[in-house]
Amino acid sequence: MSELVSLSRPADVSSDVAVVTVRNPPVNALSPGVPEGITAAIDQAVADDSVRAIVLIGAGRTFIAGADIREFAKVRAGKKERGEGLHPLLFKLEDCPKPVIAAIHGTAFGGGLETAMACHYRVAIRSAQVGQPEVKLGIIPGAGGTLRLPRLAGVAKAAEMCATGDPISAQDALDHYILDRIVEGDDQESLLKGALAFAAEVIASGAAAPKVREKDDLLGDAATNAPIFENVRALAHKKRRGQIAPLKAIDSVEAATKMPFEEARALTAKLFMECLQSPQSEALIYAFFGEREVRKIPDVPPDTPIRRVAKVAIVGAGTMGGGIAMNYANAGIPVLLKEMSEEALEKGMARIRANYDRSVQRGRFTSQFVSERMYLIQPTTSYEGFQDADIAVEAVFESMELKKAVFRDMDAATKPEAILATNTSTLDVDEIASVTSDPSRVIGTHFFSPANVMRLLEVVRGKETAKDVVATSMQLATRLRKVGVLVGNCHGFVGNRMFGPYVRESQFLVEEGAKITDVDKALEDFGMAMGPLAVGDLAGIDIGWRIRQEAKHSQPEGVRQPLAEDKLYEMGRYGQKTGAGWYRYGENRRRIDDPEVQPVIAALAKEAEIAQRAVSAEEIVERTIYALVNEGARILEEGIALRPVDIDIVYLTGYGFPSYKGGPMWYADWVGLDKVHSRVREFEQQHGHWWKPAPLLSELAAGGKTFAQWQRERS
Ligand code: 3HC
Ligand code: NAI
Fold first, then answer.
1. Does 282 reside within a domain?
2. Alpha-carbon span 152 to 156, nearest angstrom
3. Phi (first) and psi of residue 641, to 5 degrees
4. Looking at the DSSP assignment, which residues form a beta bridge with residue 378?
5. Has residue 285 been placed in a domain?
6. In whole angstroms, what is the distance from residue 545 CA to residue 567 CA?
7. If pLDDT is split at 50, 70 and 90, which confidence band does 339 have?
8. Residue 228 banded pLDDT, cuts 50, 70, 90
9. Do 483 and 506 reside in the same domain of the chain?
């Protein structure tokens, strides 16, 4: 056999079952050589008269986790023919004269589940998951997932799984007949044992091997299926707004219910290629690899020693401290949570409890899980016990003096090798570190609100932060189920620094005559999770006002500053918390257009001699998104972000940028930097100071290059 696939006979257990093992670490993707290897192994097993059944299993941590995603770029670029893809292998499995049993652990995803469904039976261990996550890559299941899944699980379950891409548990898969059995035990050895026992039963029964593609009894009819497809299309619009693949995946499942297998397969091949050729799938695949690339730090090699983190101490149990405590507790790490007073502590613990209760109500956690997590969080009002912590995290008010005082205390209270982390969103990490006896153990871990929900964690490297502190913090991000992105130390780091110009331009546009609702709508239509003005209302108009007050002394003279938000502040319109800001808020914080606001802003603009005009949706998008890009280019020049992809991942995981547009830097490359640059120049002519093009943007535009090319050339 090949190195990627082996055929063996576990003689001691059952001599008439052959075991085909896929060995393509780390995730047993169906890379070139794997389908060929399985085909050869099946042929050999079929040819061997002593074999009466075949088990297909994955070596290492998982069953087959899907097609090799890297190969898609070759097909898109025309460097590789897609041809029949995996179908020949799947037909071989399904038509195999001897029963084939897929034995699943880890994740049977995409092509992995499609392979398993072409087998005659599927068994799994309890911790296994199955799914058709292709839509998350902007494509649809391309090897019969949309056609076989409805035949096993029914139309509604199949359509939902293919449209959302969300995985399901082994139990759910068993309940929906995707699996035939969950075997006892939860390791690979138990899996093989259970699969061999299952194979022996199949042999003993002498039953004909069932072919999923020939099973039509669950496909329903047009009348019963119509509401199912209507519902799932609505779900796709809601959960994956603006994306084409989920709708095409549903079309393909619908085709499975309406036409013979082969016809539906031909249609699906066409839909698959339409998706693969779309910029959406290019962006989503870039984002998939991007989330993994950001873990790689050029000067911190993977073998850098990691400090042990078995206990955390957190100072401040406010909005962020409480959320951070939940993150650590959810990862099973005991937390010591310090507040200033018993009263503040009680308030903080009550907020944590209420957040957990909401998760139980939503079915995200069980009550038992929550009790266990609450037990891990130990409240305190002193630094006693800090000496046992491996990391101390500061989450007190955003004040340099206070943070310095807390860091002096944390420095004294912890053991010398403990990491000291700050959750500051704007302050200078080096200045904070300067008050400690060892600044090399100081780092920023900047969580986003709500900290128990948002996936992004900016890891802020100070000038003296030790490499193993960086490596440990990045690994910790993964343990906390966050996407850690390493950023440099500057005001606002990457995310908030770029968000400043973006929000500023959205406010300028309103002052120039754009309607509040039009600004948010244009950006929501672009794909942003929420428009910038609605975000202002959510975060608090008072917060924006405070930031502008603090920044006032550093702003150049005579440069245009936003006016409207200060006016809202004066009017006591602090956003959602006061029921009114840019908008008014109804029941359940429903956003309502408020006719009172626009004339107030128009009057303010008139006073400031800002001409009013109609503003197109296109201009709204360009003014705001190119403001992000221009600041992003400066961030790259300064080395605050390591690579363009780091900026993109910050925006995809922390700021609601549409994943199918790849992030601001990827999007700018896609638009063309020459075009972006020329609009930036026009904006500079019209609006002055703020629009000075970043030198890197000018240089790349002049050289006809992209940010991605620039990155490739320097690495
Ligand atoms: N193809 C190529 N590389 C893959 C891959 C795949 N399908 N899945 C994972 N990898 C790579 C990752 O890029 C990473 O590489 P790196 O170490 O160089 O950064 C490495 O494998 C390990 O991946 P993770 O760090 O993500 O490992 P985890 O253990 O955290 O997660 C996983 C494992 C849940 C399998 C996760 O990797 C995952 O979700 N993978 C994608 C699964 C998927 O989308 N499958 C469908 C593919 S499309 C398809 O099958 C089309 C079909 O219909 C024809
Ligand atoms: P908060 O006001 O909700 O909580 C701060 C808490 O710190 C209060 O409960 C206060 O009693 C406590 N505290 C102050 N001094 C203390 C001391 N010496 N010992 C123990 N506790 C003390 O503030 P929030 O929003 O949680 O912010 C905390 C930090 O996180 C700030 O640096 C902020 O900039 C940052 N941040 C805030 C985000 C947000 O959206 N709220 C997002 C990301 C970062």
1. no
2. 11
3. -105, 145
4. 336
5. no
6. 10
7. very high
8. very high
9. no
Q: Is the pLDDT of residue 12 over 70?
A: no
Residue 262 and residue 330 in one domain: no
Give the pLDDT confidence score for residue 80 in this predicted structure: 87
**Token digits of residue 253:** 């499942």
Mean pLDDT lowest among 95-99, 185-189, 374-378, 432-436: 185-189
User: Closest ligand 2 atom, CA of 423?
Assistant: 30
| Ligand 1 lined by 481 (C-beta under 6 Å) | no
Task: Give the chain's domain count.
Answer: 3
Catalytic site residue from 3, 94, 134, 346: 134
Residue 443 one-letter amino acid: I
Select from 467, 487, 507 the last residue of a domain: 487
Q: Among residues 114, 458, 511, 524, which one is catalytic?
A: 114
From CA 93, how far away is CA 5, in angstroms rounded?
Answer: 15
Does 499 lie in the same domain as 483?
no
* CA quadruple 283, 288, 292, 294: dihedral sign: positive
pLDDT band with cut points at 50, 70 and 90 for residue 553: confident
Active site residue 36: no
Residue reference for tokens 């308030």: 347
Active site residue 134: yes
DSSP string over 555-602:
SPTT-----HHHHHHHTT--BGGGTBSSSEE-GGG-EE--TTHHHHHH
The answer, yes or no, to whether any atom of ligand 1 lies below 6 A from the CB of 130, is no
Tell me which residue range forms the domain holding 628.
495-714
Ligand 1 centroid distance, CA of 87 (Å): 21
Q: Which ligand is nearest to the CA of 544?
A: 2
Report whether residue 110 contacts ligand 1, using a CB cutoff of 6 Å.
yes
Closest ligand to residue 405's CA: 2
Question: Are 137 and 252 part of one and the same domain?
Answer: yes
Q: What CATH number has the domain bearing residue 569?
A: 1.10.1040.50
CATH number, domain containing residue 98: 3.90.226.10
Per-residue pLDDT at 11: 66
Phi-psi region of 31 (alpha: psi -120 to 50; beta: other; left: phi over 0): beta
Tokens of 69: 């995603």
Residues 604, 530 share a domain = yes
Confidence check: pLDDT of 13 > 80: no
Of 487, 520, 536, the one marking the end of a domain is 487
> How distant, in Å, are the alpha carbons of 6, 42, 634 from that of 2?
6, 13, 50
Question: Is residue 197 included in any domain, yes or no?
Answer: yes
Domain shared by 560 and 655, yes or no: yes
Residues 574 and 604 in one domain: yes
Q: In the prediction, which pLDDT does 549 show?
A: 83
Query: What does the DSSP assignment read for 258-319?
Result: HS-HHHHHHHHHHHHHHHHTSHHHHHHHHHHHHHHHTT-BTTB-TTS-------EEEE--SH
Q: What's the pLDDT score for residue 154?
A: 98
Whether the CB-CB separation of 352 and 377 falls below 8 Å is answered with yes
Averaged confidence pLDDT in the chain: 96
Q: What percent of the chain has pLDDT over 90?
A: 93
The answer to whether residues 504 and 479 belong to one domain is no
Asked if residue 341 is part of any domain, the answer here is: yes
State mean pLDDT over 396-407: 96
Other beta carbons within 10 angstroms of residue 585's beta carbon come to 18
The enclosing domain of 469 has a CATH number of 3.40.50.720
